Amino acid sequence: MKQRMPRGTRSPAGLAGLRPRLLVEDDRPALAICDFSVFRDAGLEVAFCSGPGDDPGACPLLLGQRCTLVDLADVVLHGLSPGLGIAAAIRRQRPELPVVVEQARYQDGTVDPVPAGCIPLRYPCSVRGQADALLRAEAAARHKRAASPRH
Fold first, then answer.
1. pLDDT tens sequence across 122-138
2. Beta strand 99-104 with 75-78: parallel, antiparallel or unpaired?
3. pLDDT tier at 4 (50, 70, 90 boundaries)?
4. Are 85 and 63 in contact (CB under 8 A)?
5. What is the pLDDT of residues 68-88, one digit of tens each?
6. CB atoms within 10 A of CB 50
7. Order of strands across the sheet with 119-123?
8. Cβ(101)–Cβ(81) under 8 Å?
9. DSSP string for residues in 46-102
């Protein structure tokens, strides 16, 4: 599992006045070295995780444990296989966190199912389109948090 997070990490997620933190989860090798400049130019701070690969035990979420990258995220772009169960694990641990799931369309017209509470994003989609969808999801979640009564 390859991970990287920006220098000068902050916590917790959602601090006012700071750039929203995006966690990109994807196992495509090119993304492990991508500079994610379009996301940064859109106003997002980017962290990355390649997922557990062939070892599901390498992912703390799949073991019911916390993941620092998820804990610090304001929005997630999930491009890993839906069968891994990572998107569902994120939603169980942080139900308020918007998880945008890339949803492939197959030649027969069917699409992969999206875990409950996740936001589908038809794939392929331009990086700019992804950034726009992520910013909308993060803004909606921020608005919902601001509107909910404090306990």
1. 878 888 999 999 999 99
2. parallel
3. low
4. no
5. 999 999 999 999 988 899 999
6. 19
7. 3-4, 45-49, 21-25, 75-78, 99-104, 119-123
8. no
9. EEEE---TT-GGG-GGGGT---HHHHH-SEEEE-S-GGG-HHHHHHHH-TTS-EEEE
* Pair of tokens at residue 144: 């919902």
3-state secondary structure of 131: helix
Euclidean distance between CA atoms 129 and 123, whole angstroms:
10
Name the token pair of 78.
């999930």
Tokens representing 6 are 């920006």
Dig out the tokens for 132 from the structure. 């726009």
Cβ of 6: how many Cβ atoms within 10 Å?
A: 15
pTM, full prediction: 0.85
Query: In sequence order, what are the residues at sequence separation of 6 or more whose Cβ sits closer than 8 angstroms to the Cβ of residue 147?
Result: none
Higher pLDDT, 92 or 2: 92
Per-residue burial over 116-134, b if 16 or more Cβ lie within 10 Å, else e, is eebbebeeeeeeeebbebb
* Cα distance between residue 16 and residue 18, in whole Å: 6
Dihedral sign, Cα of residue 61, residue 16, residue 151, residue 97: negative
Cα–Cα dist 122/142, whole Å: 23
